[in-house]
Structures are given as C-alpha cells and as structure tokens.
Design goal:
167 residues; rod-shaped; 4 helices; mainly alpha
Length: 167
C-alpha cells in the first residue's frame, strides 16, 4: 500500500488563498512563463511540480540575496557615518591637545611670575631690614652730627694694612 503524505494546516496559512495566488502568477502549463533570475533556467523535461518547487526555492534565495545586498548598502552608510565621526573625533582630540598646551604655557607663565614676585618680595624684605638697621644705628648716635658714610670693617690682610702704606 502506498503512503500518502498529508499536508498539515498551520494557523494563519490559508491554503485556498495560496493556491489562488499561485494560479494567478502561473497561468497555463508552460514552465517558462515566470521570470526567473538570469543565473538559473529550467531544465528541459522537468515536471510542473519540480519546476514550481525550484522556482519557489530560487525566489526565496533571491529575496534573501537582495536583503543581504540591502544590508551591505546600510553597512556602507554606517561606515561613512563612522568615518565622519572619526574625523570629528580627530578634530576634537587636536583641539584638546592645543587647549592643554595652552594651559601648560599659561601655567608656566604664572609659575614664573609668582617666583619673580617671591624674589622681589624677598629683596624688599631685606632692603627694609637694612634700612631699619641703619635707622637704629643713626638714632643711637648724636643727633647734631652729620651722618658720615660708614666704611666697612676690614678683615684679614686688609685690616693690617694702613692707608699710608698703600700710597
């Protein structure tokens, strides 16, 4: 006894509508009436069932191939956007480097200025101390006398030599 395969109905599949769709696409008995992709053609003598099955499979493959190509187009668009974004990132990095260099230069100037001010302040402090010492020395002596320039105290060999010996 021969076994007969039964077609199981799936929910959502209308077999009557499917058969009507196939009939509207394929009119007549000719297997060449349907446009196929240019990379396939029917073999002479193939049965109608074989031709329809082959057409259904090639349509699915062709549809998938077109979707893959569409994804390639989308990927190219995404790559172009990435390239544009990469260029913007490089510009931003260059700007950041320039800004950092500017900050370093400004920091160097301020550093130098602060140290110059510190040295100047130290000079002012020493000068003030010297003036205070001179004022204290002058106020201790007689007030009627004119202030004579003070000669520095000599030490070492210079202290032993007199002015008359030099001339």
């Amino acid at each position: 006894m021969a076994s007969v395969e039964q077609l199981h109905r799936r929910d959502g599949v209308n077999l009557v509508q499917l058969e009507a769709d196939i009939t509207s696409i394929r009119s007549g008995n000719s297997i060449t009436s349907v446009n196929l992709p240019d990379y396939v053609e029917h073999t002479a003598g193939v049965s109608r069932v074989g031709a329809l099955s082959a057409e259904a499979v090639i349509r699915d493959y062709e549809s998938a191939a077109k979707e893959i190509e569409a994804m390639g187009t989308e990927l190219i668009d995404a790559a172009q956007k990435c390239e544009a974004l990469t260029a913007q990132v490089h510009d931003a990095i260059a700007f950041m480097r320039e800004t950092a260099a500017g900050y370093r230069e400004e920091g160097r100037k301020i550093f130098k200025r602060i140290e110059e001010c510190a040295l100047f302040t130290e000079d002012v402090r020493k000068t003030c101390e010297q003036v205070k010492r001179r004022m204290a020395q002058v106020s201790v002596g007689p007030s009627d006398e004119e202030l004579a320039p003070q000669e520095p105290e000599l030490t070492g060999i210079a202290a032993k030599v007199t002015m008359s010996e030099i001339r």
